[in-house]
Automatic annotation (TrEMBL):
Record-given protein name: ATP-dependent 6-phosphofructokinase
Cross-referenced PANTHER family: ATP-DEPENDENT 6-PHOSPHOFRUCTOKINASE, PHOSPHOFRUCTOKINASE
Enzyme active site: 128
Catalytic activity reported: beta-D-fructose 6-phosphate + ATP = beta-D-fructose 1,6-bisphosphate + ADP + H(+)
Function: Catalyzes the phosphorylation of D-fructose 6-phosphate to fructose 1,6-bisphosphate by ATP, the first committing step of glycolysis.
Chain positions recorded as ADP binding sites: 21-25, 155, 186-188, 212, 214-216
Cofactor (UniProt): Mg(2+)
Activation and inhibition: Allosterically activated by ADP and other diphosphonucleosides, and allosterically inhibited by phosphoenolpyruvate.
GO BP of this protein: canonical glycolysis; fructose 1,6-bisphosphate metabolic process; fructose 6-phosphate metabolic process
A matching Pfam family: PFK
The Phosphofructokinase domain, residue ranges: 4-276
Lineage, uppermost ranks: Bacteria, Bacillati, Bacillota, Clostridia, Eubacteriales
Length: 322
């Protein structure tokens, strides 16, 4: 293998730049030409490709977003779109492709390798932490810390006004951002798609908290359940305690990556290039029990999330937040 390409696809995540940097510099250190592909699969089909050097990735490890830009492409979902992409890859002499993104991007990479002679490796870049095969995705830790910062501020004002504060966070169908930020932020209640919750019990806990002298009540709500405004309104109606909703939104996708995300991205980026150098294809890299691992893409996407630790964290949050 002489030339590889790297792209970022789907929703952006802090730490993607650190991953790009690791791919470029590991590639160059191993004698490869590394091509940067802009705007994900869309830019790939349009030939938005340039050669990267060590200095193309200078001064980006600390930056959120992605210097390669990200996009979603409906055309790439079609065999014709992927044929177009392959033809462009051929023109640029790209034999291996590193795809930084989520499950949709990985599926696209797998199909490209199934249909054409191009090797692909996926790196998990999404704040949602919704890929079962890896304990953490790049960007998750930074998003949790962003939420934590917001919670700390909301706690101040909720305490002053003795209010209930419902905070809706991202994560799509995965409650990890709500769970981790809730535990770290000392939330009274955490509502996530993976665990049942009972509205009457929630209100009872809020009223009991008030009677015990709690000055505020912080509820973390995962977007998979959604409706923070509606929930706050219902809580106020039932408990008589003033309740406010905050939807954090896209702020969670930005910001300088944490040390954890930068280190994870550096390790995964380097491993992805090593796999291509070993001639591997249709693999994804991840971290399990602090060890860098890799799996077949299909196998990885079919895995179920390891729930034991998750359940323990949830139970712990209930005991500590009560
Ligand atoms: P995030 O988790 O941040 O949303 P993602 O990678 O899951 O990231 P998607 O929008 O699902 O984001 O996928 C990104 C791109 O990957 C799509 O726009 C499309 O070009 C390609 N892709 C997704 N699913 C498929 C598929 N089934 N077949 C081919 N290409 C796909």
């Amino acid at each position: 293998m002489r030339t590889i390409g790297v792209l970022t696809s789907g929703g952006d995540a802090p730490g993607m730049n650190a991953a790009i940097r690791a791919v470029v510099r590991t590639g160059i250190a191993n004698g490869l030409r590394v091509m940067g592909i802009q705007r994900g699969y869309s830019g790939l089909m349009n030939g938005e490709i340039f050669e990267m050097t060590r200095s193309s990735v200078s001064d980006i490890i600390q930056r959120g977003g992605t210097i390669l830009k990200s996009a979603r492409s409906a055309e790439f979902r079609t065999p014709e779109g992927r044929k177009k992409a392959y033809n462009v890859l051929k023109v640029f002499g790209i034999e291996g492709l590193v795809v930084i993104g989520g499950d949709g991007s990985f599926t696209g990479a797998k199909l490209l390798s199934d249909e054409w002679d191009i090797k692909t490796v996926g790196i998990p870049g999404t704040i949602d932490n919704d890929l079962a095969y890896t304990d953490y995705t790049i960007g998750f830790d930074t998003a949790v810390n962003t939420v934590l910062d917001a919670i700390n501020k909301l706690r101040d004002t909720s305490t002053s006004h003795e209010r209930v504060s419902v905070v809706e966070v991202m994560g799509r169908h995965c409650g990890d951002i709500a769970l981790y930020a809730g535990l770290a932020g000392g939330a009274e209640s955490i509502i996530i798609p993976e665990e049942d919750y009972n509205f009457d019990e929630l209100c009872k806990t809020i009223i009991e908290g008030k009677v015990k002298g709690k000055l505020h009540n912080l509820i973390l709500l995962a977007e998979g359940i959604g409706g923070a405004e509606e929930l706050a309104k219902k809580i106020e109606e039932v408990t008589g305690i003033e309740s406010r909703a905050t939807v954090l939104g896209h702020i969670q996708r930005g910001g300088s990556p944490t040390a954890f995300d930068r280190i994870l991205a550096s390790r995964l980026g380097a491993r992805a290039v090593e796999l291509l150098l070993e001639g591997k294809s249709k693999r994804v890299v991840g971290i399990r029990d602090n060890k860098i691992v890799d799996f077949d893409i299909t196998e990885a996407l079919e895995m179920e999330k390891r729930r034991d630790d998750h359940k323990k964290l949830y139970e712990l949050s209930k005991i500590l937040g009560y």
